[in-house]
């Protein structure tokens, strides 16, 4: 049985003139301990589909699905109290912009200790000791000192490590990472990805990695879902996807990789579609 199973998920947002469909009938599942990459360009509904799982969409969103279960439990029928016990403990999420996700008015230590005290019922002393352990686990140097730092006093890479520490604080079974390296330089991106993969293996978590980067997919994923304009285009294990992509959009994404450049610039997705006659 899949750890997370979603069938026919649709998300619509109310607008001044009607509604906009951001996710259109998507099926997604992830098994225990698996790394699933959800890939596609901006606006393809990758983040929205996972925010629907987390219950983090605004009131303007209407969510429907034939099935949305976590470990056999129906997420759509859960009460708010039941979902609060699940989200942030067994299912956690890392967001794109760590600086925007951290509260600038509080130290990094206060923010992670608050998570530990609220979600796990730890005392102040227990939370401080655990926070130091977590900062050490995610590779933050001088963890005792960094607990006293405010977000603006930390680099982008350190801020993202704080967010990862907060996400793994409760030993989640499912971690969703939404473009976790977008705002970071190339060297730091690799460090963060390597850290996520190590933690996934150490903790035995299922990991859903939301990305637009096919290079990241090749390095990390067991299985891939390709999305475009709110729809699922293709799903395959990572080796099959790269060796024999079945959908024209998947082929377009792969053709845009730098190693496939044949002229002065890479082809756009629309140019690729025109070339294929799709």
Automatic annotation (TrEMBL):
One of its GO terms (molecular function) is ATP binding. Residues 4-254 form the ABC transporter domain. It comes from Paracoccus zhejiangensis. Belongs to the ABC transporter superfamily. PROSITE patterns: ABC_TRANSPORTER_1, ABC_TRANSPORTER_2. This is Nickel import ATP-binding protein NikD. Its main location: membrane. One of its GO terms (biological process) is transmembrane transport.
């Amino acid at each position: 049985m899949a750890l997370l199973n979603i069938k026919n998920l649709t998300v619509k947002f109310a607008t001044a003139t009607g509604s906009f469909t951001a996710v259109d009938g998507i099926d997604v599942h992830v098994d225990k301990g698996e790394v699933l990459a959800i890939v596609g360009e901006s606006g393809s509904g990758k983040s929205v589909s996972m925010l629907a799982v987390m219950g983090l969409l605004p009131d303007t969103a209407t969510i429907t699905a034939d099935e949305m279960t976590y470990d056999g439990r129906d997420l759509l029928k859960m009460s708010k109290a039941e979902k609060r016990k699940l989200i942030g403990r067994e299912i956690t999420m890392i967001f794109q912009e760590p600086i925007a996700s951290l509260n600038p008015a509080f130290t990094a230590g206060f923010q992670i200790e608050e998570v530990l005290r609220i979600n796990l019922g730890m005392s102040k002393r227990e939370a401080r000791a655990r926070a130091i352990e977590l900062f050490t686990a995610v590779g933050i140097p001088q963890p005792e000192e960094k607990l006293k730092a405010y977000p603006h006093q930390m680099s982008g890479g350190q801020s993202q490590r704080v967010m990862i520490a907060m996400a793994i604080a409760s030993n989640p079974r499912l971690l969703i990472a939404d473009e976790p390296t977008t705002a970071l330089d190339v060297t730091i991106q690799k460090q963060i990805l390597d850290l996520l993969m190590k933690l996934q293996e150490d903790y035995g978590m299922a990991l859903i990695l939301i990305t637009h980067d096919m290079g990241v997919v090749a390095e990390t994923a067991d299985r891939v879902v390709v999305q475009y304009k709110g729809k699922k285009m293709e799903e395959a294990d990572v080796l099959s996807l790269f060796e024999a992509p079945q959908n024209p959009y998947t082929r377009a994404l792969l053709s845009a990789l730098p190693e496939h450049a044949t002229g002065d610039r890479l082809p756009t997705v629309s140019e690729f579609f025109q070339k294929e006659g799709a």
